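Folding problem:
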Amino acid sequence: MHFIGKINWEIYKCITEGIVTDEVIITDERIEHIKERHPGDYERYMNYIGKILQDPDYILEANKPNTGIVLKEFTENGKKFKLVLRIRIESDPPNYNKSILSFWHIGDTTWNKNIKNKIILYKRE
């Protein structure tokens, strides 16, 4: 388990109520998942994860409870990212944490499709 950073409760409460902690982790199993499904993205872009969580452009509804899809574009280099975050809530077992489920670099088509086809829970002003 690796500590990634903290989130702003006011932003992320759009995913679910009853958030227990602001700390976000990623497990070794999820790192391996990312490396297998999105080759090279974790190694090249892992340093972006904390910034994505701290200042998301969009949070979209995911297809699982207490989970959100976080989108972030970095204007200085035009890179766009998609991150899936599972929020820990009061009714979760004590060993649960806010956890990154997946993360990858995306292109304009995927970015636009996500914004068009998913429910927007949060948009940075």
User: Anything to note?
Assistant: The first helix runs from residue 9 to 12. The helical segments are 9-12, 28-37, 41-45, 49-54, 108-117.
